[in-house]
Amino acid sequence: MTDERRSARPIPEMDPVRRATDGAEAALIPDFCNMRVALRAFVLVNFGCVLGAALFATGPVETWLVLGRSVAIVEPTLILSLIALCPLRRWFAGEPRRLQWLVGAGVPGLIAGAVGAALGPVLHPAMYPLELAYWVLVRSLAAAASAVVVIEWMRLRTVALQPSQAEGRLQALQARIRPHFLFNSLNTVLGLMRSDVRSAERILENLSDLFRVFMRDSRELIPLDEEVLLCKEYLSIEQVRMAERMSVDWKVEDMPGDALLPSLLLQPLIENAVHHGIEGRSTPGEIAITIGRAGDRVRVHIVNPIPEALATRSGNQMALSNVRERLSLTFDAEGQLSTSVEDGQFRVTVLFPYRKERRRRDGRTHLNPDR
Questions:
Q1: Same domain, 239 and 140
Q2: Within this chain, do residues 278 and 250 fall inside the same structural domain, yes or no?
Q3: How far apart are alpha carbons 309 and 278 in whole angstroms?
Q4: Residues 156 and 194 reside in one and the same domain
Q5: What value does the CA radius of gyration of the chain take, rounded to a whole number of Å?
Q6: Would you give per-residue pLDDT tens digits along the chain (371 residues)?
Q7: 202: Cβ–Cβ under 8 A, 6 or more apart, which residues?
Q8: Do 233 and 285 belong together in one domain?
Q9: Distances (CA, A) of 53 to 5, 14, 48, 60
């Protein structure tokens, strides 16, 4: 693919081959190349096999018979699945989660089907072909379900045993946003120092207020109305630079202002809308921001036009990946970010659970986004 064709591609949602340190999601399939991880899976599956034989058998003798037949299918399936998923984890790391689940559960299911088809006539020679096919299908589905249980158990175990790692990752993601925003704002001030001194002074006054936000503990959740106030402060800085080229339509009448979210979660998305939707245009454009309730969750909808010449910088990908991972670290599966392109508009939708705050005073109430 030539450089010209690459530059003409639509803005991607996320580069799937990026490293986890750059904001890509961690691989869903456990690292079965690691002997300790493989041993845990081996023990867990065999424990389930023994427990199932004890529950479904009617006596000690039948328990051993059921266990023997189960082991004849389970052990080769388990060993071959661990061997197969070892390289597949690296190949599918960074791919969509649904595809990783399909591979993680489908490979053991297919292997169990193949093993069952090979050993079924030996273990049950009296079965008719249709009965044997059903018997193989049940074992295949059981293997896929067991793989889902093992993968989810290991994922939850990793989250539970490594909270400090997740917290450190969250702080690192937060820290990556801060200098990016501040440097852009300072560059705007430098550009106005000679041409419009009063506007540069107003921007510096706004920045002095925003510095209080950056001094906040990145682990602290803030109310949504404070985040919106911060975004309006940022847009007031960009409005000086863009002048008539940019207009902003806020629809926050139904916004639950007391909903909690990580600080600087929405600001990078709005910054993307400015730099990738307005700055590259030769004609004026509008950014539409809608915030409201969606059941027991909060929905943020940001829409900006796509410029005539699409930007090739990676900032859009970085911000989307950053926000997506911070949502996952803070709200787990309840936090979601999705993007789409419709009718020449780039749309970002953020969903997170509505968790109320205890109202408190902290010095942010004096910010004036219209200053």
A1: no
A2: yes
A3: 11
A4: no
A5: 27
A6: 444 443 333 333 333 334 343 444 567 888 888 888 888 888 888 888 888 777 776 777 777 877 777 788 888 888 999 999 988 888 887 788 889 899 999 999 999 889 888 888 887 887 888 888 898 898 899 889 989 999 888 888 776 655 444 555 555 555 555 565 667 677 777 777 777 777 777 777 777 766 666 666 555 788 999 899 888 988 887 887 777 889 999 999 999 999 999 887 898 899 889 888 888 787 889 999 999 998 889 999 999 998 765 544 444 567 788 788 888 877 877 889 999 998 889 999 999 999 875 444 343 444 444 44
A7: 240, 371
A8: yes
A9: 59, 46, 9, 10
Are 364 and 213 in contact by the 8 Å Cβ rule? The answer is: yes
Domain boundary among 138, 161, 184: 161
Q: H helices of the chain, where?
A: 3-7, 35-56, 60-92, 97-123, 129-161, 163-192, 197-214, 224-242, 267-272, 315-331
Provide the β-strand partners of residue 298.
Answer: 293, 352
The parent domain of residue 109 ranges over 3-161
In a domain, 366, yes or no: no
One domain for residues 181 and 152? no
Q: How many domains is the chain partitioned into structurally?
A: 2
Question: How distant is the alpha carbon of residue 185 from its chain centre?
Answer: 28
pTM: predicted TM-score of the whole model, two decimal places: 0.53
Report d(CA 266, CA 335) in Å as an integer: 13
